[in-house]
Amino acid sequence: MDGDVPLIDVETAAGAIAEDATVLTSGFGSVGYPKEIPLALADSDRDLRLTIVHSGNVGDEIDVDLVESGAIERRFSYQSTRVARSATNRREIAFSDRNASSIGDEVQYGGMVDADVAVVEAVAVGEGWFVPSTSIGQVPAFVDAADELLIELNHRQPLGLQSIHDIYRPESPPNRTPIPLTGPGDRIGESYVEFDPEKLIGVVETDRPDSTYTFRDPTDDDLAIAANLRSFLSEEMERSAVFDDAIHLQFGVGSLGNALMGELQELDFGDRDVVYYGELIQDGLLDMIDSGRLESASATSMAFTAEGQRRLFDDIDRYAEDIVLRPADVANHPGLIDQFGVVGVNSAIEFDIYGNVNSTHIGGKRMVNGVGGSADYNRNSLISVCALPSKLAGKDISRVVPMTFHVDHTEHDIDVFVTEQGVADVRGCSPVERAERIIENCAHPSFKPKLQSYLDDVRSQSNHIPHDVERAATWHDN
């Protein structure tokens, strides 16, 4: 740490934040977020009415303690705990969901909020610069946009994290030029974020650990979905010349994502380079790196279990040869997803027979988490895959429905649907043809006859997309 950087205690830092401030925080994938300052705010006896903005999910210090304190009046753009979810659905917190790729621009140029202070976590800091910790997200944009800056210097995180960072900030519109990234493993930026030293209020030292993930063991359905995806990818690599030399993959975070990556260990890629270009790196990617199956991995955050994080920290110099962390407006950039011809694989709550996908709201009304970066990849990938079990585990609820009453990704965004039952490739299909393929290949046997009966009854309508809305709504009564 540079000797000219002002050290302050956490109470002073929290007291410097106005009661009605708009606070931009680091954090993505429940790691790399500030911890001590949010806890001090939660313990404050002031009448706080904060607007909190972050570009991905954060840990319990913000998503539980600060929420339960009643200090948050409004927040963007993701929430990931039962406490935050309940407060959102009770509308005690005004919540606005945003795509991960665009929130930096929206804050800095779009007038979404008037940013007062950025609160970020770092592993090193000096006059006019700091090195982020385990995630980047929209930190460069947030630091530029905020009037003031508070930094938590976390001594629990290794300084070696600087070796995996590639901080590149796109230029401002309308003079923005193409991002000069020719390969996901390339580096085009620096290991640190620059800031105006006049913005810095002070630095708070901490050694509080991140909230790591806990993934369940893959279920039989997870493994069947993974096997079906493997078969599809094998056929697709043989069918399309675009995959002759390399295949670029992205997976949503979670136990299913880890199962999918485990299954890819068995896929014969031949001489092709296998590259990960996504937003989150999880344990399964470390396994692929260790086995020599992965050329490189590019993301904006690391969603590791405690064991996965230990593996990385213990051997960070070796992993830095293959792992790159970038700002979310690069990692999730639509042009780069298109440029690399990514095969994007993401899950959801449900999808309907016409190919519309709901990622965020149960029954069309109850918020679960947020859309995150799934829309960035679903809309811009060369092949967009929605993968999920055909019914809710342990319950008699189909996740393939006649009509979803909340749509995050339209039928124009998704190419392929995969469940444990099979694969529905709906590219080039009309709506009714999509419905036929989805019901036949993806629906659970317990619900397939009922879905087929619905389609048979409505297809006589003179409509491009035939529906019985009242009948479709009964599927959501549970």
UniProtKB/TrEMBL annotation:
GO molecular function: acetate CoA-transferase activity; acetyl-CoA hydrolase activity
SUPFAM superfamilies per the UniProt record, alphabetical: NagB/RpiA/CoA transferase-like
Biological-process GO terms, alphabetical: acetate metabolic process
UniProt keyword terms in alphabetical order: Hydrolase
All residue ranges annotated as the Acetyl-CoA hydrolase/transferase N-terminal domain in the record: 9-205
Matching Gene3D superfamilies: 4-hydroxybutyrate coenzyme like domains, Acetyl-CoA hydrolase/transferase C-terminal domain, Glutaconate Coenzyme A-transferase
Regions that span the bilayer: none
One Pfam family cited in the UniProt record for this chain: AcetylCoA_hydro
Residues of the Acetyl-CoA hydrolase/transferase C-terminal domain: 308-454
Keyword field contains Ubl conjugation: no
Family: Belongs to the acetyl-CoA hydrolase/transferase family.
PANTHER family named in the record: ACETYL-COA HYDROLASE
Protein name: Acetyl-CoA hydrolase
Species this protein is from: Haloferax marinum
